[in-house]
Design brief:
elongated
Length: 64
Amino acid sequence: MSADIVNLRQFRKKQARSEKEKQAEQNRISFGRAKAEKQLTRSLNDKADKIHRDGRIETDDDGA
């Protein structure tokens, strides 16, 4: 039972590169959109938020 010998420095560098690539992919998804797409997403989120707020029942909970 012999294990593979791993250079820890190289392993850490490889892992750091992998993490940076994952972050870059997330940034491409988040920031790599056209202005129209961003506005559409923003308007859909605002509409959903408004519908959510309009559906709430207002109550007076003043403790008395």
